[in-house]
Specification:
Organism: Nocardiopsis ansamitocini
CATH superfamily: SMI1/KNR4-like
Largest sheet: 5 strands, antiparallel
Order of helices and strands: HHEHEEEEHH
Number of strands: 5
Number of domains: 1
InterPro entries: Knr4/Smi1-like_sf
CATH class: Alpha Beta
Strand content: 15-25%
Protein name: SMI1/KNR4 family protein
CATH topology: SMI1/KNR4-like
Shape: globular
CATH architecture: 3-Layer(aba) Sandwich
């Protein structure tokens, strides 16, 4: 956690975020599949946001913000030092939007998928694991 917090020491993320990352820092199964949120990738999010704002989208304000999540490179999630909750910024939108009152609400929304979604994700994970194992055996 110290390394994560050191990426933007001027902004202290909420306790529910640090608790989540302490417990699930390297991944939580299918939760946030396709979204970068976990360690060690999260160490680069604040630098990425600074570069993104400077080179791609000057509408993104990074001062006083702690970036904790990037989805597909164009949707960024962050905490603000001047306003509670989770905030998001979509490339080209020109303004941040309030995404959730608390980080735990943000997680709950991400987890609220129908059972069919989770079964599909588990099946994909099984297939990926089997394919990886076959490649490993073939290379021996």
């Amino acid at each position: 956690m110290e390394r994560v917090l050191a990426t933007k020491p001027s902004v202290r993320p909420p306790d529910d975020y640090t608790g989540f990352l302490t417990a699930f820092g390297r991944g939580a199964g299918n939760l946030f599949r396709g979204t970068d949120l976990y360690y060690p990738g999260c160490l680069d999010f604040n630098d990425y946001a600074e570069e993104f704002a400077a080179e791609e989208d000057p509408g993104l304000v990074t001062d006083g913000c702690f970036f904790f999540c990037v989805h597909q490179g164009y949707l960024l999630y962050f905490f603000r030092s001047d306003a509670p909750g989770v905030w998001s910024y979509l490339e080209g939108s020109g303004e941040a939007r309030h995404a959730a009152d608390f980080f735990r609400s943000f997680v709950a929304t991400a987890a609220d998928h129908p059972p069919e979604y989770w079964e599909y994700a588990r099946e994909q994970d099984r297939a990926n694991t089997e394919a990886k194992e076959k490649r490993r055996r073939a290379s021996q």
